[in-house]
Specification:
heterodimer; A: alpha+beta; Immunoglobulin-like; four-stranded antiparallel sheet; 8 strands; 30% strand; B: mainly alpha; Arc Repressor Mutant, subunit A; 2 domains; 8 helices; 68% helix
Chain lengths: 168, 186
């Protein structure tokens, strides 16, 4: 069977003995394709999860001095450091103005007798820009800083660590 | 044009457009796959490969040109999927040397390549006679047997083989002039 569109050979020449619809199931094909799409969604989610890095806020507190001071420092991957009062009840971290949950994951006293608390938050790499603005609020105190690519062990005695989550 | 509307919707990731295209073209795709696989595979195998073809279509929708018919792209994908299946399952599979080295693409990543090669093949085919075009398309893209094609075209089997050989040669030169060497054409 020939059609007029000379540039389209697939329409100009149709396969001989075209399989009739009753000899196979288009519905099976549709189901199978949608199954593959669902699987692909799962794969994409996993890939995206890999990009999410937990950022550790390590708040080291001198047990003898309650310091009402905060210093926030964001690394390339958004790591945040903070020196905080010894009575922290609530930590709020804002990345580019958006509040991000920071969860207390650990606390204790290190070998030097310094109390510490470790907070963890998750930031998608895609959402973290080079000029990321990180702001932190603890109790009544608000601290703010821009990104910095160097570790901050400064006056606050604060440190941070960074872990990379590999979902796959 | 119905295809154009569906391709535009497909580009917007509308699953209903995909379903509509499957309904419209599943017979076409299934036929090509069945022809190439031959009798050694079940209808379920062919359905599964057909699903792979439409999955590729979905994955690569943004690369499609809505101004063109979708059927050449589907034919090329169906052919490649079926050929790959044969390669996977039959260690003794010997690709038809007439064409396999001239044009083929065997992964999703090659979809752009499929589109580009299709354009060039179509351009080249447009310079051939209707008989040469039909012989080439039926044999290489639709997986039809020389015996059946020769009957339909009223030619001897040897005449068909000779024409196919010459057409393949023309195509190879045509592609080589446009920068497609055997290394680049998988």
């Amino acid at each position: 069977m020939k059609k007029s569109d000379k540039s389209n050979w697939a329409e100009k020449f149709i396969p001989n003995n075209m399989v009739k619809s009753e000899n196979f199931s288009a519905d099976n094909i549709i189901l199978s394709v949608h199954g593959k799409l669902e699987n692909e969604k799962g794969r994409i989610t996993m890939t995206k999860t890999r990009k999410i890095k937990p950022l550790i806020i390590a708040a080291a507190i001198a047990s003898t001095a309650a310091i009402s001071m905060i210093s926030v420092n964001a690394m390339t991957d958004g790591a945040v450091t903070a020196a905080i009062d010894s009575t922290i009840h609530k930590v709020k971290v804002f990345i580019n103005g958006e509040e991000t949950d920071a969860e207390l994951v650990d606390s204790g006293v290190d070998e030097n007798g310094v109390e510490y608390q470790v907070y963890e938050l998750y930031v998608d790499d895609d959402e973290v820009k080079d000029d990321n603005e990180v702001r932190m609020e603890m109790n009544d105190f608000v601290g703010e800083d821009s990104r910095n690519d160097e570790d901050d062990f400064g006056n606050t005695g604060v440190y941070y660590t960074e872990e990379v989550s590999e979902a796959e | 044009m119905k295809d154009k509307r569906l391709i535009l919707k497909l580009k917007k990731k509308d699953p209903k457009a995909l379903d509509a295209l499957i309904k419209e073209y599943s017979s076409y795709v299934f036929t090509i796959i069945r022809n190439i696989l031959g009798g050694a595979f079940t209808a379920e195998d062919a359905e599964e490969l057909s699903a792979d073809v439409f999955f590729r279509l979905w994955e690569n929708a943004e690369k499609l040109n809505e101004e063109r018919s979708i059927s050449p792209y589907l034919a090329a994908c169906a052919r490649n999927c079926a050929k790959n299946k044969l390669r996977e399952l039959r260690t003794d599979y010997c690709a038809d040397e007439l064409f396999e080295d001239v044009i083929s693409a065997d992964s999703v990543q090659d979809s752009c390549e499929i589109s580009r090669q299709l354009e060039l093949v179509t351009e080249c085919l447009n310079g051939l006679s209707d008989t040469e075009q039909e012989l080439f398309v039926r044999f290489y893209y639709y997986g039809e047997k020389i015996k059946d094609i020769s009957k339909m075209l009223g030619l001897s089997e040897n005449a068909c083989k000779t024409k196919l050989f010459r057409t393949r040669d023309k195509l190879r030169k045509y592609l080589a002039e446009r920068g497609y060497t055997n290394e680049k054409i998988r």
